[in-house]
């Protein structure tokens, strides 16, 4: 049995696919490739990878739609997007659709490999490292940290790797205020990165755990500082 993680690289640029594939192979990954969105979905249907590196600008079926279909089909595989520098709106939309991270083109292949390793590690390690921690219950919200599951009432929440990491971090530190930079570093281990990533994930969490996301109660904004988990009233 091959225990090397499988990465699916989706990009219509042959050179990009080749470079990314070679760097991932050197880092210990098996690699599948796809040149368009439809091929990517067929590849996932045939063999679910451990992580997907997904370009947003794809022919016929774009990367955002591929991301949406993967998430709507309950495929929990971590997704790292490749975006151009001028595609900020698409990056934000990609995160809102459930992507876990992004790297902007032109990019450093070494940085990309680190990002891939980070989302893959986060998706795998928490159940082992945090075994024995009791679920956190806050009103109708229940967060099972060892099992990486969260639910509101009888409804289980479909959370991405980064969304769950953020929720688990906040619910265990009720009443504490964190800046976006602190959340980037303490939740995901980034000492650099776009802080709007935190804003997007907070908004997505509110849409899933708040009764009224436009008037959030559990995750409060501390203006000029950051965010605080207050819990159900």
Automatic annotation (TrEMBL):
<feature type="domain" description="OmpR/PhoB-type">
    <location>
        <begin position="132"/>
        <end position="231"/>
    </location>
</feature>
<dbReference type="GO" id="GO:0000156">
    <property type="term" value="F:phosphorelay response regulator activity"/>
</dbReference>
<dbReference type="InterPro" id="IPR016032">
    <property type="entry name" value="Sig_transdc_resp-reg_C-effctor"/>
</dbReference>
<dbReference type="InterPro" id="IPR011006">
    <property type="entry name" value="CheY-like_superfamily"/>
</dbReference>
<feature type="modified residue" description="4-aspartylphosphate">
    <location>
        <position position="55"/>
    </location>
</feature>
<protein>
    <submittedName>
        <fullName>Response regulator transcription factor</fullName>
    </submittedName>
</protein>
<dbReference type="GO" id="GO:0000976">
    <property type="term" value="F:transcription cis-regulatory region binding"/>
</dbReference>
<dbReference type="Pfam" id="PF00072">
    <property type="entry name" value="Response_reg"/>
</dbReference>
<keyword id="KW-0238">DNA-binding</keyword>
<dbReference type="InterPro" id="IPR001789">
    <property type="entry name" value="Sig_transdc_resp-reg_receiver"/>
</dbReference>
<keyword id="KW-0804">Transcription</keyword>
<dbReference type="Pfam" id="PF00486">
    <property type="entry name" value="Trans_reg_C"/>
</dbReference>
<dbReference type="InterPro" id="IPR036388">
    <property type="entry name" value="WH-like_DNA-bd_sf"/>
</dbReference>
<feature type="DNA-binding region" description="OmpR/PhoB-type">
    <location>
        <begin position="132"/>
        <end position="231"/>
    </location>
</feature>
<dbReference type="GO" id="GO:0032993">
    <property type="term" value="C:protein-DNA complex"/>
</dbReference>
<keyword id="KW-0805">Transcription regulation</keyword>
<keyword id="KW-0902">Two-component regulatory system</keyword>
<dbReference type="InterPro" id="IPR039420">
    <property type="entry name" value="WalR-like"/>
</dbReference>
<dbReference type="GO" id="GO:0005829">
    <property type="term" value="C:cytosol"/>
</dbReference>
<feature type="domain" description="Response regulatory">
    <location>
        <begin position="6"/>
        <end position="120"/>
    </location>
</feature>
<keyword id="KW-0597">Phosphoprotein</keyword>
<dbReference type="GO" id="GO:0006355">
    <property type="term" value="P:regulation of DNA-templated transcription"/>
</dbReference>
<dbReference type="InterPro" id="IPR001867">
    <property type="entry name" value="OmpR/PhoB-type_DNA-bd"/>
</dbReference>
